[in-house]
Amino acid sequence: MSIPRTVYKMQATGNDFVVYADPRGDLEPTADQVRWLCDRHFGVGADGVIRLTHPADVSDLNQDQVDACDRFGCQWFMDYRNADGSLAQMCGNGTRAVTLFAQKQGLTPTMEGSSFLLGTRAGVKRIVSRSPMKCDGEHVFKVKVGAWRMGPVGQQLVDGGALGGSAPGTMVDMGNPHAVVLTAVAAELESSELPGTVTDLLARTDLPDPGDLDLSAPPRVRPGLAEGQNVEFLRLDALDADNGSGRATMRVYERGVGETLSCGTGLCASGVLLRALTGVDHWTVQVGGGRLQVDVDPQDVWLTGPARMVARLTLEHVPDC
């Protein structure tokens, strides 16, 4: 197994990826090759690697997963690997980045309103091309990330590492696991505007505003999952219950990667918790890499945001490992 000499650097709100197409199914990377590609000093540098291939050519999928792609008419699969070489079930920002890549490769239509069916380890996702968002670049996509599940609010305790405090967290499953923590509200929000669910959580936290957190070490989640989970930290910035909309700011620590500028499924998980706390369905969320729209209903979550192609790269040397 190896990787091709030509790869592409893509980013979606600062979540960056090395992407390549593998239509013949013979270029599955090793964990060492993924780690090398993602190394920001000795490789290309990225949060993860995406191989766009056919479902039948993904070695860890079982026949039921391949058959599910076939039933949807899904020809292409996002084989996503974290920077540490581990497999990932899903990456919301990655779905936008690889859809743009597929358009550039002539594998799917480019016109506004066209859709792309993409297989992931968390099921088949539909990505729709949208008109540009102001100041967010040329290529904007709306992804039906799909079904969500949420545990009891505030049941986890998030602490340890460089955080120097603790706060209640809530588990949200977006096809991959998240612990979402509300640590602050904007100063301009009057306490009388806040639902009791919000003030109850804030009364139990001694973590600072997300912008002041030290995420150089991984947060601990208790009880957590043996395989780990992503952890999101939120500030509630604005709430307009009459119009069903709100704004928030998020930082994220991704398992297998570390802190990233954005996490698509983390944004969705944050929207799920914010909806549970406030009853508001539509959220504009600011992350380090930009601003995205998250829309939540009782079953599903949609994520809208930009993606860009950064470069076409020729690798001088590919480690044979």
TrEMBL record:
Recorded GO MF terms: diaminopimelate epimerase activity
Localization, UniProt: Cytoplasm
Subunit structure: Homodimer.
EC number: 5.1.1.7
HAMAP family found in the cross-reference section: DAP_epimerase
Catalytic activity: (2S,6S)-2,6-diaminopimelate = meso-2,6-diaminopimelate
InterPro entries, per the entry: DAP_epimerase_AS (IPR018510), DAP_epimerase_DapF (IPR001653)
Pfam family, one: DAP_epimerase
NCBIfam families given in the database record: DapF
Keywords, ordered alphabetically: Amino-acid biosynthesis, Cytoplasm, Isomerase, Lysine biosynthesis
Keyword Amino-acid biosynthesis: yes
Catalytic residues in the record: C91, C263
Top-rank taxon: Bacteria
Record: residues binding substrate: N15, N82, G92, N93, N176, N230, E254, R255, G264, T265
Cellular component aspect of the GO annotation: cytosol
Summary of the function given for this chain in its UniProt record: Catalyzes the stereoinversion of LL-2,6-diaminopimelate (L,L-DAP) to meso-diaminopimelate (meso-DAP), a precursor of L-lysine and an essential component of the bacterial peptidoglycan.
Site residues, Could be important to modulate the pK values of the two catalytic cysteine residues: H178, E254
An individual GO BP term: lysine biosynthetic process via diaminopimelate
Protein name: Diaminopimelate epimerase
Main location: cytoplasm
Pathways involved: Amino-acid biosynthesis; L-lysine biosynthesis via DAP pathway; DL-2,6-diaminopimelate from LL-2,6-diaminopimelate: step 1/1
Family per similarity comment: Belongs to the diaminopimelate epimerase family.
